[in-house]
Amino acid sequence: MQLTRYTDYGLRTLIYLALLPAGHKASIDEISQTYGISRNNLNKIVHQLGKAKVIQTQRGKGGGMFLNQAPEQINIGDMVLLLENTMRVVECDKPPCCISPACKLKGIFADATQAFVTSLQAYYLSDLLLEEQKPLLRILV
């Protein structure tokens, strides 16, 4: 299974925000430039994360975005489920498959997908930030 760039960028955004010093906010331009992500894509991601109350956004002077929860509370599996538009490995109904009623593959794929999600749910954003040898990302504030 391969996750979309949208989910990848969403996770990168959460990592960036988690690495900010306490009390600091990031802008869309800042994150966009750091990761080379288009502003338009990042706007959509930030909107979705804000709507889900994972991050908080503030407009205007002194505005920006920051995590609304501690990194220890942000589950990676839950974020993947939030950001992915589908977790289906294959689309059995587009176009309709003639063997679909008797096919066992969709059940196998569903089990594999559930195992994948369950594995991701064992990790939190805080797990992605721990690196003893070298910093994950240096944010100069």
TrEMBL record:
Assigned keywords, A-Z: DNA-binding
Q: Extract the coiled-coil ranges from the record.
A: none
Q: Kindly indicate where the leader peptide sits in this chain.
A: none
Look up keyword DNA-binding and say if it applies.
yes
* Keyword DNA-binding in annotation: yes
Which Gene3D superfamilies does the UniProt entry name for this protein? Winged helix-like DNA-binding domain superfamily/Winged helix DNA-binding domain
State the source organism's domain of life.
Bacteria
Its name, as the record gives it, is Rrf2 family transcriptional regulator
Species this protein is from:
Psychrosphaera algicola
